[in-house]
Design brief:
Layout lengths: L1 H14 L1 H37 L5 E6 L17 H10 L3 E16 L2 E10 L2 H5 L4 E4 L4 H6 L3 E4 L1 H8 L8 E4 L2 E9 L14 E5 H9 L6 E6 L5 H15 L10 E5 H44 L1 H9 L4 H38 L7 H27 L3 H6 L2
Parallel strand pairs: 3-8, 5-7
Antiparallel strand pairs: 1-9, 1-10, 2-3, 2-6, 2-9, 4-7, 5-8, 6-7
């Protein structure tokens, strides 16, 4: 008897195909919007994490603190220097790499071509800290790094601009007013999470950069990579202790240096995008309620239209539960069908959007299953009242209904 009731419910949905489709349209739009929003949001979060990870894993960046715009500072500004680097290199027990770096944007020339590129003076630990490999050639030798020899590594953008598919190794380029020999090509890193083109770079030994490009011995930043299994927060605490002692900062006084934990920045940005995704998903979810109300409205109309049919079924022996199940099945089928169509539509829209925005396509199986379950629940909840109303009709009154 139960299967017969379910069959009658499905037959009723099929007989009124157009009305059924218009009824489930609200569920389709709601589920599609939720799936699309959450999938796009998840892809955005993955892109943020991936872009920031390009800067290096477990990376901390130490820089000199800058006075605020008002000019009033509670510390004495002081540029980073070699003593800070030496103290961190010798004192840090939780780091696998400590690399000073200084940067300047200059004109780089090869033959008749020239581009503006960021030139970085650094040491070999920089490539370890930044998880940056060499695709061709090699990094600096110990003597080149110590003596500031006129050698350099170039990024993928510089290589493509000057040499195309040719071999750049051994060629000489002019960086500002100084010539340097190309000994390596860095692997492509693309754009960082902060919109910085990381491949438009030239890397030189720090001492050579300071002498020929910068004209001073200032250090712009110190890149520090935490050792495997060590939390960046532990490394940061150790850095603060060493630098406060090296820079002779009095107890209770503010630091005249800043430490940026890239892991925390990535988590904060990912958390922000996740929160925004949740808010957009919640807004889109409101349309599911609207779709549920539409189902309830149509089911009430269906009960009214089929009052005489219900009366006949009750008169020939059907129980109230059979009528209740039939209308509940109708509502649930409509809602479930709308959910399945909505999932397909939502994933298609999300796929198009992620492709256009160049972000990962990251559908969540749990969200898809939740959408299916929620759409079925909406059908049962909003279909219950019309089904109950039909089941409680008096057979005699129902038979008299015109």
């Amino acid at each position: 008897m139960l299967w017969e009731t379910i069959r009658l419910a499905l037959l009723s949905v099929w007989r009124n195909a157009l009305r059924s489709f218009l009824t489930l349209l609200g569920i389709v739009i709601g589920v599609a919007a939720v799936i699309a929003m959450i999938t796009i949001g998840s892809g955005t979060t993955e892109k943020v994490r991936g872009d920031i990870s390009k800067l290096g894993s477990n990376l901390l960046v130490v820089q000199a603190a800058r006075p605020d715009r008002s000019g009033s500072t509670s510390f004495t500004p002081k540029q980073l220097d070699g003593r800070d680097v030496e103290a961190l290199s010798k004192g840090l027990t939780t780091a696998k790499a400590v690399a000073p770096a200084a940067q300047k944007t200059v004109r780089v020339v090869y033959g008749a071509q020239n581009i503006s590129a960021q030139v970085t003076g650094t040491e070999n630990d920089y490539f370890t800290a930044r998880d940056w490999n060499v695709s061709e050639g090699r990094i600096f030798s110990e003597s080149e790094a110590r003596g500031g020899t006129n050698v350099c590594l170039i990024g993928a953008t510089v290589r493509g601009q000057f040499f195309g598919t040719g071999d750049p190794l051994g060629q000489s380029i002019r960086v500002s007013r100084s010539s340097c020999r190309v000994i390596g090509v860095l692997e492509s890193k693309g754009t960082s999470g902060f919109g910085q083109a990381q491949d438009n770079v030239v890397m030189m030994p720090l001492s050579g950069f300071q002498r020929r490009i910068a004209g001073n011995r200032d250090i712009g930043a110190i890149y520090i990579a935490a050792a495997e299994g060590i939390a960046t927060s532990d490394v940061q605490t150790e850095i603060e202790t060493i630098l406060r002692e090296t820079r002779r900062i009095a107890p209770g006084a503010d630091d005249n240096f800043d430490i940026r934990d890239m892991t925390q920045i990535a988590d904060a940005m990912a958390s922000a995008t996740t929160t925004m995704t949740g808010m957009l998903g919640a807004v889109a979810g409101v349309s599911l309620l609207v779709g549920g109300i539409g189902i309830m409205n149509i089911m009430l109309v269906s009960v009214t239209e089929r009052t005489r049919e219900i009366g006949i079924r009750l008169a020939i022996g059907a129980h109230e539960r059979h009528i209740l199940v039939q209308f509940l099945v109708e509502a649930t089928v409509l809602s479930l069908l709308g959910g399945l169509i909505g999932i397909a539509l939502g994933l298609s829209l999300a796929g198009l959007a992620t492709s256009a925005l160049s972000i990962p396509f990251a559908p969540s199986l749990s969200i898809i299953l939740l959408a299916v379950g929620f759409s079925a629940l909406i059908g049962m909840v909003f279909g219950f009242f019309p089904a109950l109303r039909g089941a409680r009709l008096d057979p005699i009154d129902a038979l008299r209904h015109e």
